[in-house]
């Protein structure tokens, strides 16, 4: 036991005062001659014995009152079985500064708790202090003394990043320790922090958990249908997750310049909901805000989208009226695509087109193959190949560069139908509940050999649609001799979605805090700062070569679920309460209550 205010222990000497008073004023009996009254003498002896006992009890009460009063004022502390004062160790201390620690005042509590635990160690102990989310430029940490460790803790700032213990221990392994090694993590002990962490071969790994509550946040914002061409408006879906066991009602607010839209939404307990917002096609970036709670980082979402616009398509080869009608049904109807026709690409400037459809072409020249390769290398471009009667050498070489080989032509007995559609391929998502593909017939098609993605198969396991990056190959073209797909309602939406699918590989110009953009170009940050090749450290809008990208906190961090005790046990980790786990258990109140109780007992004895 130790004392926070030991100078009050001097007051214990005042215990002698009631003892001195007791003996000084003790009653002395004086003999007085009196007539012999036997029974009166016996009664008097009994009363005198009780008075002596009562005086002793009152003396004890007064002594205990004085002792309890001054012991209470001296703040006695009991030692803890975990963190006894002046323990000597090499301490690997990790302070959680991930953005979930921004819940209320949790990060400030974590810093204060870290300081208290550091002070429990001996001044001779050494410390290895690290934030859970270190800066990318952080140099190799070093062992330091207790005073420097306290300074380093105060210098750690709250981050917008997410962290994992596995990554910290891999990046900064402890070495050259002078004393027994102890790991000490201080934070909210989220389950995801311990992801993929193998059981630790250490005797002492302590987790000091800072309690938090529940959270509601925006998980992501996505285009409702990114492969549908937009005209005047498009649909955004705001996914909001409620980690609380209680339902929530709030307002989703989208702000972009002068444009503002709001929508009320009910989020079920421990569930999520997608809130749809209709946005003008001219608005491609903005900020979405949801209700304020104790963790604000995920209540704001910065979005920047590549909205599918009007495309320029070059149809090369045979003029297929079915295909032209699907792309541009009438001059009176607005079409999301602009179609040009050419027999070959020899004299055509391909730079002004987004998509090239090679329809019914048997072969191309070497120069045309080079032009098509250069075209595919550009951003937001794509080629759809519909084979002719044969496939020449230059055409085969071009496709082989994309790991696609055209084999022999197949004419099934009767016809073949579609056996499989890859509904995980985003352009096909909308067709999950559509049964119209089952009745489409194919009379002639090429056998395709490939190791790349097969988006559709025919009966007999023949690939029908093959996709490698921005090149898409059909096993046949759309003529009446080969298929009747043109006469089915799915034909037009299928063509449009495939076209927008191959050129919109990435329609979200969005990243997470902690991501690194692989570019040599200069990036302008939210406050106009310049940097290059560094990871994003905070949310907001960034600019790269005039293009706006949005950066947000990782939504997974918003799940404040704490690691279970069973999981901690399997990892050889011991959970410590930040209050009970400290070395000092204050007994002041107990001693002061004891003093008050002695006052009450003395009053009772005096009244008897």
From TrEMBL:
It comes from the Bacteria. The chain crosses the membrane at residues 6-25, 56-73, 587-607. InterPro entries: Aerotolerance_reg_N, Double_TM_dom, vWFA_dom_sf. Residues 1-76 form the Aerotolerance regulator N-terminal domain. Keywords: Membrane, Transmembrane, Transmembrane helix. The keyword Membrane applies. This is Aerotolerance regulator N-terminal domain-containing protein.
């Amino acid at each position: 036991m130790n004392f926070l205010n030991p100078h009050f222990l001097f007051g214990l000497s005042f215990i002698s005062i009631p003892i001195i008073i007791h003996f000084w004023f003790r009653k002395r009996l004086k003999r007085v001659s009196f007539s012999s009254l036997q029974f009166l003498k016996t009664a008097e002896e009994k009363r005198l014995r009780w008075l002596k006992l009562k005086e002793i009890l009152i003396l004890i009460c007064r002594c205990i009152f004085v002792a309890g009063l001054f012991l209470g004022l001296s703040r006695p502390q009991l030692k803890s079985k975990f963190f006894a004062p002046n323990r000597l160790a090499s301490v690997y201390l990790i302070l959680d500064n991930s953005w979930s620690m921004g819940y209320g005042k949790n990060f400030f509590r974590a810093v204060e708790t870290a300081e208290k635990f550091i002070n429990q160690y001996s001044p001779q102990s050494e410390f290895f202090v690290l934030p859970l989310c270190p800066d990318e430029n952080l140099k190799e940490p070093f062992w330091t003394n207790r005073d420097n460790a306290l300074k380093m803790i105060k210098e750690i700032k709250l981050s917008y990043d997410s962290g994992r213990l596995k990554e910290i221990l891999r990046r900064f392994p402890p070495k050259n320790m002078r004393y027994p090694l102890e790991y000490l993590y201080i934070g909210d002990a989220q389950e995801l922090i311990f992801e993929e962490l193998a059981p630790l071969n250490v005797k002492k790994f302590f987790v000091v958990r800072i309690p938090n509550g529940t959270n509601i946040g925006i998980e992501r914002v996505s285009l409702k249908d990114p492969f549908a061409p937009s005209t005047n408006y498009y649909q955004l879906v705001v996914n909001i997750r409620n980690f609380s066991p209680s339902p929530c009602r709030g307002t989703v607010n989208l702000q972009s310049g002068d444009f503002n839209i709001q929508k009320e939404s009910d989020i079920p307990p421990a569930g999520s909901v997608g809130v749809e917002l209709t946005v003008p096609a001219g608005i491609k970036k903005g900020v979405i805000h949801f209700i304020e709670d104790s963790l604000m980082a995920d209540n704001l979402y910065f979005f920047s989208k590549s909205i599918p616009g009007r495309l320029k398509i070059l149809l090369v080869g045979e003029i297929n009226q079915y295909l032209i009608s699907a792309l541009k049904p009438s001059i009176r109807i607005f079409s999301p695509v602009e179609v040009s026709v050419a027999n070959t690409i020899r004299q055509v400037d391909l730079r002004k087109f987004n998509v090239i459809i090679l329809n019914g072409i048997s072969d191309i020249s070497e120069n045309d193959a080079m032009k098509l390769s250069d075209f595919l290398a550009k951003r937001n471009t794509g080629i759809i190949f519909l084979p002719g009667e044969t496939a020449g050498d230059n055409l085969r070489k071009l496709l082989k560069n994309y790991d696609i080989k055209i084999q022999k032509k197949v004419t099934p007995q009767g016809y073949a139908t579609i056996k499989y559609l890859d509904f995980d391929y985003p352009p096909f998502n909308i067709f999950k509940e559509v049964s119209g593909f089952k009745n489409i017939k194919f009379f002639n098609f090429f056998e395709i050999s490939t190791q790349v993605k097969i988006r559709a198969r025919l009966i007999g396991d023949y690939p029908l649609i093959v996709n490698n990056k921005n090149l898409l190959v059909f096993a046949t073209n759309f003529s009446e001799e080969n298929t009747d797909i043109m006469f089915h309602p799915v034909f037009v939406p299928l063509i449009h979605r495939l076209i927008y699918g191959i050129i919109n590989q990435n329609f979200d110009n969005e990243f997470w805090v902690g991501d690194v953009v692989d570019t040599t170009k200069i990036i302008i940050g939210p406050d106009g700062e310049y940097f290059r090749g560094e990871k994003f450290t905070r949310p907001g809008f960034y600019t790269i070569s005039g293009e706006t990208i949005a950066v947000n906190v990782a939504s997974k961090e918003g799940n404040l679920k704490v690691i279970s005790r069973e999981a901690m046990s399997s990892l050889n980790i011991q959970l410590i309460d930040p209050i009970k786990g400290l070395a000092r258990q204050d007994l002041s109140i107990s001693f002061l209550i004891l003093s008050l109780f002695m006052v009450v007992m003395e009053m009772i004895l005096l009244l008897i």
